């Protein structure tokens, strides 16, 4: 288990870079300019002080028609206030300013949305709009300190594969910047399947669909899979997706890291057996991938643990 810096004692050895983890964030952004900038800056400043290297994501929620963004953890029926992309721009730029002001490390931040139903928004248009937003934020980020990327939390449990495939195509049409696929493999088989598409998942998804939106769509797409479950099933699902890619000639997954949610589970209830600590998420995924020579990872990858907004204690 990765210890928070405040719990280390003089006798504890410092964590190596491969043992540390970054923190990702569910971003609840106010509509006003100053408030959005402050939320982003405060989050980035805490991350900058922690200084953990590796990728992290800022999850802004779901895209809706008219350029509106619905906050994380909500549905179309939610009365939660929507914000415009200008508020997201301000919050993301604020994160960059906080990171560079309060720390000295070089970091990677993926600006992410999810595939929850979004009031009929067109997939390709949404992907291209998000690519434009990523480019705007990248333009104000010092390249020697911050790498700005896009992110898609695509989950079969939230809808069919066509929308996510269309979104990814739109994003790739709008930018060459890296896309981190921080999604899940809901219902996918955790072992070999004889089906040519690798086997079925939820809502009409196949292993081929998950592989496509997590690696296969372009060389700039990297997998940051959710490894929440303590029993290791998700790690085995993703290992089979990578194995299927290798065996089908599409290539193994390009794994940039693992995503855990221990901190978010500590903040909110409802995480029965899905509160993997970051170190366990890394170990499970590494061991599952290394079970096949075709998917073996040669170097340790990072892990990022997602958190809800709180009092500022959401960093390692």
Task: Spell out the key features of this protein.
316 residues; alpha/beta; TIM Barrel; 10-stranded mixed beta sheet; 8 helices; 35% helix; 16% strand; disordered C terminus
Mind explaining what this structure looks like?
The chain is of the alpha/beta class and 316 residues long. The protein has helices at 33-50, 85-102, 123-139, 161-174, 207-216, 233-248, 262-267, 278-289; strands spanning 22-26, 55-64, 68-70, 83-84, 107-114, 146-153, 179-181, 221-223, 257-260, 302-307. Strand 7, helix 5 (207-216) and strand 8 form a beta-alpha-beta unit. Strands 1, 2, 3, 4, 5, 6, 7, 8, 9 and 10 form a 10-stranded mixed sheet that branches. It has one domain (20-307): TIM Barrel (Alpha-Beta Barrel).
Largest β-sheet summary: 10 strands, mixed
Q: Gap between N and C termini, in Å?
A: 11 Å
List low-pLDDT spans.
Answer: 1-18, 311-316
Average pLDDT over all residues: 91
Q: Report the CATH architecture.
A: Alpha-Beta Barrel
Short description:
By secondary structure, the chain is α/β, with parallel strands linked by helices.
Question: Topology of this structure?
Answer:
Blueprint: E1 22-26, H1 33-50, E2 55-64, E3 68-70, E4 83-84, H2 85-102, E5 107-114, H3 123-139, E6 146-153, H4 161-174, E7 179-181, H5 207-216, E8 221-223, H6 233-248, E9 257-260, H7 262-267, H8 278-289, E10 302-307
Parallel strand pairs: 1-2, 1-10, 2-5, 5-6, 6-7, 7-8, 9-10
Antiparallel strand pairs: 2-3, 3-4
Helix pairs in contact: 1-2, 2-3, 3-4, 4-5, 5-6, 6-8
